């Protein structure tokens, strides 16, 4: 719900999420390779599943970054009243 007190200089956390996901992907792939070399199939599979989930998240983050900013009401639009139940 809009309250009218939203910051006018708010920034999207997508770039931070992108770099944290890249960092996590590096560690997950490193874990997958490391556990494969140590012949630990259970941990290797867990790291591989985590790497796959991070890759899907990265694709979604990149998609949202490429979509650009979405419409946000400006300060000239007053806050709206929440719907009232009858």
State the major sheet.
none
Instruction: Tell the overall outline.
Output: elongated
- Number of helices, counting only DSSP H or I runs of 4 residues or more: 2
Question: How far apart lie the N and C ends?
Answer: 19 Å
- Alpha-carbon Rg, integer: 21 Å
Percent range for β-strand residues: under 5%
Low-confidence stretches: none
Mean pLDDT: 85
Q: How would you classify the helix and strand content by structural class?
A: mainly alpha
Q: What percentage of residues falls in helices of 4 or more residues?
A: 55-70%
Helix and strand pattern: HH
User: Could you give the count of β-strands?
Assistant: 0
Summarize the structure.
The protein has 86 residues and is mainly alpha-helical.
Describe the structure.
This protein has helices at 14-37, 41-67. It contains 2 helices and no strands.
Keyword list:
86 residues, mainly alpha
Topology:
Elements: H1 14-37, H2 41-67
Helix pairs in contact: 1-2
């Amino acid at each position: 719900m809009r309250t009218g007190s939203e910051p006018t200089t708010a920034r999207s956390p997508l770039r931070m999420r992108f770099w944290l996901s890249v960092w996590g992907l590096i560690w997950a792939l490193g874990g997958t390779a490391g556990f494969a070399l140590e012949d630990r199939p259970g941990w290797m599979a867990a790291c591989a599943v985590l790497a796959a989930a991070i890759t899907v998240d990265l694709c979604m983050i990149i998609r949202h970054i490429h979509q650009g900013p979405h419409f946000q009401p400006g300060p000239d639009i007053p806050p709206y009243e929440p719907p009232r139940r009858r």
